[in-house]
Amino acid sequence: MLTHYFSLIWRSILFFIVLFIWVSDLINGNNTLVNQMSEHKLFLNMLWLFFAGEMVIRFFPSKIRSPGCQKQFERNYIKTGNTEIQISDNHATMIVALIWIVFNGVFGALHTLHILNDGFMLLLCCAYSVCDVICILFFCPFQTWFFKNRCCATCRIYNWDYAMMFTPLFFVPGIYTWSLLALSVLLMARWELNFYLHPERFSENTNAYLKCSNCTEKLCRHKKQLAPLWENIDKFTRDRIQKLKHDSKHDKSS
Q1: 94: how many CB neighbours lie within 10 A of its CB?
Q2: Interatomic CA distance for residues 150 and 215, integer angstroms
Q3: Cα distance between residue 34 and residue 22, in whole Å
């Protein structure tokens, strides 16, 4: 869990740095974000190596990585004795993929029309990178609204994260941007290939590795501890909406 918090901190710092430069560009009426990153080769190389390194590690089994991305490997397939493969959320993958393509297609169209610049697309990647860790630690809309899966360990699209994160880079030509995007797509393709060749590894009913008793992260406990907070926020929001509606009706009657 500490590695996730480390990722959240440094990705957030990166996001605010890029946000500051991008906003400064807007105020000054120029576009220096991409140029500044290109001029600082050491920083750019380190940034590329970090993200590329994280993705390369995902291609191989690792005891320090999340069970969510490790279930694809044969060494982590622990037979339960059951042969019925149950992956109820598989159909939701196409819906999520379509929504993601359309959603980013809007930004891509605005970029093509020169309404959004390259700097904004990089900023969008940074925002996605922060949201990726938030999904793991606090709240995941894909889990809640689409897949209804128990936890990250059973997530059908766990290794889609980098491809989703770097989707905006499709509209920013360059060796650094397109190489990261290509590597992320390759990682996702490897995941999907393993899923269709070995679906038994992705089903909790056939793979005991995905059972709670074998989990090494226990992120579900962390999220459950936050459940009362979300409930209080939800209750406050409902009460606030009701109050606003009541005040509105009272004003009209007056």
Answers
A1: 9
A2: 12
A3: 9
C-alpha–C-alpha distance, residues 129 and 7, integer Å: 9
Cα–Cα distance measured from residue 167 to residue 106, given in angstroms and rounded to the nearest whole number: 12
Give, rounded to a whole angstrom, the gap between the first and last alpha carbons of the chain: 55
C-alpha 19/C-alpha 63 separation (Å) is 35
Cα 6 from Cα 132, distance rounded (Å) = 13
> Collapsing DSSP states into helix, strand and coil, what is residue 80?
coil
The residue with tokens 């209750």 is: 235
Q: How far apart are CA 69 and CA 73, in angstroms?
A: 9
Distance CA 196, CA 191 (A): 9
Q: How far apart are CA 122 and CA 254, in angstroms?
A: 51
Buried b (16+ CB within 10 A) or exposed e, 15-52: beebeebbeebeeeeeeebbeebeeeeeeeeeeeeebb
Q: How far is CA 88 from CA 84, 92, 118, 141, 148, in A?
A: 12, 9, 39, 17, 9
Pick the closest to residue 192 from 78, 56, 90 (CA basis).
Answer: 90
Range with the poorest average pLDDT among 71-75, 81-85, 234-238: 234-238
For the segment 22-76, what is each residue's pLDDT rounded down to a tens digit? 888 888 777 667 776 766 678 788 899 999 999 999 999 998 888 999 999 999 9
CA dist 50 and 43 (Å) reads 11
Q: Which residues contact 200 (CB under 8 A, 6 or more apart)?
A: 77, 85, 206, 207
**Cα distances (Å, whole numbers) of residue 116 to 110, 111, 113, 120, 170:** 6, 4, 8, 6, 14
